[in-house]
Amino acid sequence: METSQEQINVMPRIGDIAPDFEAVTTKGNIKFSDFAKDKWTVFFSHPADFTPVCTTEMSGFAQRKTDFEALNAELLGLSIDSIHSHLAWVNNVKEKTGVYFDFPIIADIDMKVSKLYGMLQPNESETAAVRAVFFIDPNKKIRLVMYYPLNVGRNMEEILRVLEALQVSDEHGVAMPLNWKKGDKVIIKPPKNLDEMNDRLNDDTCERTDFYLCKRDL
Ligand code: BEZ
User: Fold this and answer.
1) Looking at the domain 173-216, which fold is it?
2) How many angstroms does the Cα of residue 114 sit away from the middle of ligand 1?
3) Residue 218, CB half-sphere, CA atoms under 13 Å: how many?
4) Does ligand 1 come within 6 angstroms of the Cβ of 89?
5) Domain 5-156 class, CATH top level
6) pTM above 0.70, yes or no
């Protein structure tokens, strides 16, 4: 129980600056603070190489790499496996399916990075990272975190959707409603005082449910 509590205490949260680290990856050594300069980072963990769900997920990231690039985002994977295991798995999947994991995958054999990011959740597994995704902006601030258990794979459309939603929200100062996707109306900031509320009630440029819920096209 003590270990679990320690892990919970260090889990980085939304709004935190992503903890820095150095690591060995399939694309060479990295220092995170120097990684993906001026770009977003989608940093994700998987439980283990040569396992079925992980193979589908990693293939999904690899197959959508150009979509992440179009959103100015770099992919960074991690599992608690050796670099030799990573290389053998990348090569095996390429040989068997033609899909190449052309992004760095951290070999976190000493669990240093997994612990730093709360990816090791001992009540789920003491030796394998859960399926985490950290969305980290170009200022290295954590903007969204997903944690999935070992037995359920993630949804690539959702990962891309939230990345785009964060970026559109930043660019236009708006918020995204339920199930928002590119092209849908966005939510404009609710009024903060009575004058703004009365203005909003007379604003015919937005789709208004009431003063606090108004949508518009971008
Ligand atoms: C998998 O990726 O298939 C997997 C990994 C760890 C536990 C269960 C499933």
Assistant:
1) Antioxidant, Horf6; Chain A, domain 2 (3.30.1020)
2) 17
3) 18
4) no
5) alpha beta
6) yes
